[in-house]
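Sequence design from tokenized structure. All designs in this work follow the same two-part layout: the structure record, then the generated sequence. An example of the structure record is given first.
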């Protein structure tokens, strides 16, 4: 029950008591009772007002404490979310690609704002002419997405549609699934056989555990010409 409602009930009770006493006594007694009643009423109202003021002060203090804790929490979060350096972003990309720094040539490593988050765009070439492009989260070091392109790869063997050394579709699927731990054939959403300058190529897509993988495999030797990884829509 609210404070205002309590005050109304108390005043009604006091008023009723005053009327009862007034009907039972003489005029002199009535005047005396009226004075007593007014004094008691003022005392009760004063106590109620004091209670309201105390509750208001307590509520204000609680809000101030809550605001201070929230501000402290936000400051702590900001301090913990320290941005990684360019060198650390490069190291994360190399670790994922399983390559050493002396085996690659970096093209760029720059900070960008992408899809509401800060990321490092890391690009480099390996000595076998593979091209890598990574997006690394600027705070956690997480690999957000990456792309491997062997477009400049010098093929050791140029296959044709009639080449008996061309790998089969099943072999190509197994090679792609081997890169996605836990995935099986049911997670291959797209797959097709294509030809590029007489060379057999397999292209496909795997969606597993919230991540989408797109790949392109050279049918002559099983080399991954392209491999992309990003969060699934």
């Amino acid at each position: 029950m609210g404070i205002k409602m309590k005050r109304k009930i108390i005043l009604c009770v006091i008023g009723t008591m005053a009327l009862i006493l007034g009907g039972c006594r003489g005029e002199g007694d009535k005047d005396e009772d009226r004075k007593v009643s007014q004094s008691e009423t003022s005392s009760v109202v004063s106590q109620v007002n004091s209670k309201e003021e105390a509750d208001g002060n307590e509520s204000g203090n609680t809000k101030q404490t809550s605001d201070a804790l929230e501000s402290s929490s936000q400051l702590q979060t900001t301090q913990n979310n320290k941005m990684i350096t360019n060198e650390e972003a490069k190291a994360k990309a190399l670790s994922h690609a399983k390559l050493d720094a002396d085996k690659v040539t970096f093209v760029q490593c720059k900070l960008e704002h992408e899809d509401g988050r800060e990321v490092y765009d890391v690009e480099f070439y390996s000595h076998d002419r593979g091209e890598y492009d990574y997006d690394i989260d600027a705070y956690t070091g997480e690999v957000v997405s990456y792309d491997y392109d062997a477009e400049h790869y010098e093929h050791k063997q140029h296959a044709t549609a009639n080449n008996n050394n061309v790998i089969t579709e099943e072999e190509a699927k197994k090679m792609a699934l081997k890169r996605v731990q836990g995935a099986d054939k049911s997670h291959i959403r797209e797959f097709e056989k294509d030809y590029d300058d007489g060379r057999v190529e397999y292209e496909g897509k795997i969606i597993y555990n919230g991540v989408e993988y797109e790949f392109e495999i050279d049918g002559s030797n099983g080399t991954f010409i392209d491999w992309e990884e990003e969060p699934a829509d």
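The longest helix spans residues 27-80. We note this feature because it recurs in several other targets discussed in the main text.
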